Amino acid sequence: MAAPIDLELKKAFSELQVKMLDTQQKVKLADLQIDQLTRVQKHAKLTSMEVSTLADSTRLYEGVGRM
Q1: What is the helix, strand, coil percentage profile of the chain, to 5?
Q2: b vs e for 49-58, b when ≥16 Cβ sit within 10 Å of the residue's Cβ?
Q3: Could you tell me the pTM of the whole model?
Q4: What sign results for the dihedral spanned by CA atoms 53, 59, 63, 67?
Q5: What is the C-alpha separation between 60 and 29, in angstroms, rounded?
Q6: How distant, in Å, are the alpha carbons of 2, 31, 56, 61 from that of 64?
Q7: Per-residue three-class SS string for 29-58
Q8: What pLDDT shows up at residue 1?
Q9: C-alpha angle with apex 12: 10 to 18, nearest 5 degrees?
Q10: Pairwise CA distance, residues 1 & 4, whole Å
Q11: CA 45 to CA 53: how far, in whole Å?
């Protein structure tokens, strides 16, 4: 009688282990995305601050591709 219970426990444990690994991967991916978006946000803020310090008559150019 103990054998079927052990098999059920092993199966449930392995399913939870797979689910845990999947969740950990998703959390790592979310953390990487947060880090990347934070860098993009910081870059945009710094660019905006630098551009706002320029006089209105200053000509600005925007890059449109690789050189």
Answers
A1: 75, 0, 25
A2: eeeeeeeeee
A3: 0.67
A4: negative
A5: 37
A6: 70, 30, 22, 9
A7: HHHHHHHHHHHHHHHHHHHHHHHHCCCCCC
A8: 54
A9: 100
A10: 6
A11: 13
Q: How far apart are CA 35 and CA 42, in angstroms?
A: 11
Structural contact between residues 51 and 60, judged by C-beta atoms closer than 8 angstroms: yes
Q: How far is CA 57 from the centre of its chain?
A: 39
What pLDDT shows up at residue 65? 81
- pLDDT of res. 22: 98
- Write out pLDDT tens, residues 2-29: 677 888 999 999 999 999 999 999 999 9
Q: Give the HSE-up count for residue 36: Cα atoms under 13 Å, Cβ half-sphere.
A: 6
